[in-house]
Write a structure and sequence with these properties.
Layout: E1 3-8, E2 14-20, E3 23-26, H1 35-41, E4 52-54, E5 59-60, E6 70-74, H2 78-84, E7 93-97, E8 102-103, E9 109-111, E10 118-119, E11 122-128, E12 144-151, E13 154-155, H3 156-159, E14 175-182, E15 194-199, E16 202-208, H4 216-226, E17 234-236, E18 258-262, E19 268-275
Parallel strand pairs: 6-17, 8-14, 9-19
Antiparallel strand pairs: 1-2, 1-5, 1-14, 2-3, 3-4, 6-7, 10-13, 11-12, 11-17, 12-14, 15-16, 15-18, 18-19
Region (Disordered): 1-20
GO molecular function: hydrolase activity; isomerase activity; metal ion binding
Family: Belongs to the FAH family.
C-alpha cells in the first residue's frame, strides 16, 4: 500500500510526499511541485525520496489542493434516496464543488453564518490519474490513481433553494478531503469497505461501498461522456443513508463538534466544526 499526502513543510511551503507511518518522505521537485503535477507527468512512481519530516511537524493540505474539477454524485445509495423521498432516476445526479470549499484532515470545517442546517455526508472520493474522455465502464478503473475520504458538508437550506444542489454544497471551507491518496493495489475488495461517519463519536452512517447504485466504473463512464477528466480531478461518489437532515429530530453540525469519516484501510478524515468568522 502506498499513501500520498499533500502538505505544508514546517516553513509553510506547499509540498507532497509519501506517508510511511508517522514519517512523511518528500517527493516534490522543482519540475514536479505537487501531487497533481506528478499524476499529470506520470512521474509519481519514479520520483526519488527527498527530505523526511515527522508527521507531527507538517500541516496536511487537501489530498489534491488544486483539482481542476470536483464532481459529486448525489443520491447514489438506495437508503439515502429513500430517506430523501426522491424518485430513483435512470442516470446519476451530478453537481460540482470548488477547490476553495475543501479543507484537509485535521483542519476545521466552517459552518456558514447563513445556515443552521450544516449537515455531514461521508463519502468515498476517487482521484483520477490519467486523462480520460468518453471512457467505457469496462476500461474506467485503469484511470483511477487512488481513493480518499470525503465529507460533502452541506448547507441543506441553500441546497434546496431551487432544483440545483450547488449553492448548498460549495461554501468555502465546508468540505473535508483527506487524509491521503491510497493506491488501488492496497485494496483487495473495495466494495466490502464501509463508509462510516461519526459525529462526536456517535456512528451516524455505515454502509458498504458495494451498496452504491452506480458503481465507480459506471460513474466514470457517465461523467467522462460529457466532460474530459484530467489527472488530479476528484469524483465524490455519494453518501449513504443516515444524514442529519432526515433524522427525527434533525442532527446538524455545530461549532465544537467533531466529525470523522472512516473507510477501512483508506483511513479516517477528522475535522472539527467552527463558526464562520
Amino acid at each position: 500500500m502506498t499513501r500520498f499526502v499533500s502538505f505544508r513543510r514546517p516553513d509553510g511551503t506547499p509540498s507532497f510526499g509519501r506517508q510511511d507511518g508517522e514519517t512523511i518522505v518528500e517527493l516534490a521537485t522543482d519540475a514536479t511541485p505537487s501531487l497533481k503535477a506528478a499524476l499529470t507527468d506520470g512521474s509519481l512512481a519514479t520520483l526519488a525520496d527527498g527530505a523526511t519530516f515527522a508527521a507531527a511537524d507538517i500541516v496536511l493540505l487537501p489530498v489534491i489542493p488544486d483539482p481542476a474539477k470536483i464532481l459529486c454524485v448525489g443520491l447514489n445509495y438506495a437508503e439515502h434516496v429513500k430517506e430523501t423521498g426522491r424518485e430513483q432516476k435512470a442516470h446519476p445526479a451530478i453537481f460540482v464543488r470548488y477547490a476553495d470549499s475543501l479543507v484537509a484532515d485535521g483542519q476545521p470545517l466552517v459552518k456558514p453564518t447563513v445556515t443552521e442546517r450544516f449537515d455531514y455526508e461521508g463519502e468515498l472520493a476517487v482521484i483520477i490519474g490519467k486523462p480520460c474522455h468518453k471512457v467505457a465502464a469496462a476500461d474506467a478503473m485503469a484511470y483511477v490513481a487512488g481513493y480518499a475520504c470525503f465529507n460533502d458538508g452541506s448547507a441543506r437550506d441553500w441546497q434546496r433553494h431551487n432544483i440545483q444542489f450547488t449553492p448548498g454544497k460549495t461554501f468555502p471551507g465546508t468540505g473535508g478531503f483527506g487524509p491521503a491518496l491510497v493506491t488501488p493495489d492496497a485494496i483487495e475488495d473495495l466494495g466490502a469497505l464501509r463508509v462510516q461517519t461519526r459525529l462526536n463519536g456517535e456512528l451516524v452512517q455505515d454502509q458498504p461501498i458495494a451498496d452504491m447504485i452506480w458503481d465507480i466504473p459506471t460513474v466514470i463512464e457517465y461523467i467522462s461522456a460529457f466532460t474530459p477528466l484530467a489527472p488530479g480531478d476528484v469524483i465524490a461518489t455519494g453518501t449513504p443513508g443516515g444524514v442529519g437532515d432526515k433524522r427525527t429530530p434533525p442532527l446538524y453540525m455545530k461549532a465544537g463538534d467533531k466529525v470523522d469519516v472512516t473507510i477501512g484501510i483508506i483511513g479516517t478524515l477528522t475535522n472539527r466544526i467552527i463558526d464562520e468568522q
